[in-house]
TrEMBL record:
A Pfam family hit: ELFV_dehydrog_N
InterPro entries (alphabetical): Aminoacid_DH-like_N_sf, Glu/Leu/Phe/Val/Trp_DH, Glu/Leu/Phe/Val/Trp_DH_C, Glu/Leu/Phe/Val/Trp_DH_dimer, Glu_DH, NAD(P)-bd_dom_sf, NAD_bind_Glu_DH
Organism the protein comes from: Roseovarius litorisediminis
A GO biological-process term: L-glutamate catabolic process
Residue numbers annotated as active site: K107
TM region positions: none
SUPFAM superfamilies from the UniProt entry: Aminoacid dehydrogenase-like, N-terminal domain, NAD(P)-binding Rossmann-fold domains
Record keywords: NAD, Nucleotide-binding, Oxidoreductase
Name of the molecule in the record: Glutamate dehydrogenase
Gene: gdhA
Domain Glutamate/phenylalanine/leucine/valine/L-tryptophan dehydrogenase C-terminal: 188-475
Site, as annotated: Important for catalysis: D149
Residues that hold NAD(+) according to the record: T195, N234
Length: 476
């Protein structure tokens, strides 16, 4: 039997935090102030459904208010508990600081299996939960702004926004009370794909540095890399799809709730996703090798492992068997602190959650700004940009005609160059820039300090440093 106890999710976050602050020189007391969760609100409410009163338990935790509003998703899952919500809220504080999103950290959760309820029932439950949080300002555009997480998406965010509007009819900024809304409900282009897109941008940035690639025992670019992904939900699906379609990666295994699929020749992400949508799981998919204990495939040989489902899946019981030289934590907390020690000792490079899945909060930040400014990004400048480009194209065409067949414009150049940036292009550009800048800050700390062995510690050092600066500015 293993004598060393597996740390809980919150203990893992605290252990990783402690490892980083031991390398910092924070004033006495500030370390504790940053680490602890400021407040967690627990609510139990009843909803009459199917002729019976059902009681539900939900949480909203505020980790740090050094910047307001605080930000963090709302999760619907049976495993939700106070410990988990507090760990996730702490991660949000560090994540927002790392990517310069001007928010404190928060997180919410409702203990429910969304698959057990039909849409109308879920709406009643979500609205009632939102009501409880709104009346305590735990949902508010200036104080606390939720977003989607596991088990929630655009639909739930639209219900929450509408509930807020009903309770605050004159708040002109009401739509900014939640992000991840559908486009016609005040959302922003590119939010649904944002977290997976951020994972793709993070990997692209990692592979721009041969020194970092080499540290993971890899070489070359993303093209042809063998990837295993766990969880084909919002984050895992988009990450795997973009890596396959745009970067030439081969998805050699997909692990879902009901089992895993493996095909060394590569699985078609879109086809597997469609299969899950119509069959409820990966079982029966006509290609690849299916096993019921899908988590076994985490241990397969591959270049990049993407856990994108839930926390604690790589732990002290399987860490030693993990063969991937590079893990990117698309989910929050998929590697426990105990597993992290084992993997680091083996030389595995881990791109940590607080950075890897920060694409979601980054685009949420853009959505919040859009809601407060009441104007779509690109609306003012797009046509003006196109008109200026037209001037250049006209001039080039004039030269083209003058020079005859000595000089011919590349096909498609005109069409591509003329197109001014719309909201989606601007969002992707802002996200890419954010992911690159945050990675550069982490790697600079990783490589410039002898005492920093890994990217996670580097990420904590950068983000805790920023939170500490904010607290100092507040006079603490
Ligand atoms: P989701 O509910 O859309 O998808 C989760 C997927 O994982 C589902 O397909 C589910 O069937 C699968 N799954 C659940 N348990 C599993 C298991 N034991 N083994 C294999 N697969 C399993 O959730 P999501 O929004 O994609 O979130 C996934 C992770 O990413 C969570 O840790 C979440 O906190 C994190 N995250 C999400 C966002 C976001 O914008 N949605 C942002 C940052 C971080």
């Amino acid at each position: 039997m293993n004598a060393v106890k597996e740390p809980s999710f919150r203990e893992s976050v605290d252990l990783m935090f402690n490892r980083a602050v031991a390398l910092m020189d924070l004033p006495p007391g500030l370390e504790e102030k940053i680490r602890v969760c400021n407040a967690t609100y627990t609510v139990r409410f009843g909803v009459r459904l199917r002729g019976k009163l059902h009681t539900f338990t939900g949480y909203r935790s505020v980790h740090s208010e050094h910047m307001e509003p605080v930000k963090g998703g709302i999760r619907f899952a049976m495993g939700v508990n106070q410990d988990e919500v507090e760990a996730l809220a702490a991660l949000m504080t560090y994540k927002c600081a790392l990517v310069d999103a001007p928010f404190g950290g928060s997180k919410g959760g409702l203990r429910i299996d969304p698959r057990e309820w039909d849409e109308h029932e879920l709406e009643l439950i979500t609205r009632r939960f939102a009501y409880e949080l709104i009346k305590r300002d735990l949902i508010n555009p200036a104080q606390n702004v939720p977003a989607p997480d596991m088990g929630t998406g655009e639909r739930e965010m639209a219900w929450i926004a509408d509930q807020y509007k009903r309770m605050n009819t004159t708040d002109i900024n009401g739509r900014a009370c939640v992000t991840g809304k559908p486009i016609n409900g005040g959302g922003i282009q590119g939010r649904t794909e944002a977290t997976g897109r951020g994972v793709q941008y993070a990997l692209q940035e990692f592979f721009r540095y041969p020194e970092d690639t080499k540290a993971a025992g890899l070489s070359g670019k993303l093209d042809g890399k063998r990837v295993i992904v766990q969880g084909l939900g919002n984050v895992g699906y988009h990450a795997a799809k973009f890596l396959q379609e745009e970067d030439g990666c081969k998805i050699t295994a997909i692990i879902e709730r009901d089992g895993g699929l493996m095909d060394e020749d590569g699985l078609d992400v879109e086809a597997v996703r469609n299969w899950i949508a119509s069959h409820g799981g990966v079982d029966g998919y006509p290609k690849g090798k299916y096993i019921r204990d899908g988590a076994k495939y985490l241990e397969n040989d591959c270049d990049i492992l993407i856990p994108a489902a839930m926390e604690g899946v790589i732990n002290m019981s399987n860490a030693a068997n993990i063969k991937a030289p590079l893990i990117i934590e698309a989910a929050n907390g998929p590697v426990t602190a105990g597993a992290d020690d084992i993997l680091r000792a083996k030389g595995c490079v881990i791109i940590p959650d607080m950075y890897a899945n920060a694409g979601g909060v980054t685009v949420s930040y853009f959505e919040w700004v859009k809601n407060l400014s009441h104007i779509r990004f690109g609306r003012l400048g797009r046509r003006q940009e196109e008109a200026r480009h037209q001037l250049i194209v006209d001039e080039l065409q004039r030269l083209d005609a003058h020079l005859g067949d000595k000089w011919v414009m590349t096909p498609n150049f005109k069409q591509k160059y003329l197109r001014g940036a719309g909201e989606l292009e601007l969002v992707r550009s802002g996200l890419d820039d954010t992911m690159r800048a945050a990675y550069q800050a982490m790697r600079e700390t990783w490589h410039s300090r002898e005492d920093v062995e890994d990217l996670r510690t580097a990420a904590y050092l950068v983000s805790i440093g920023k939170v500490a600066t904010s607290y100092r500015a507040l006079g603490l």
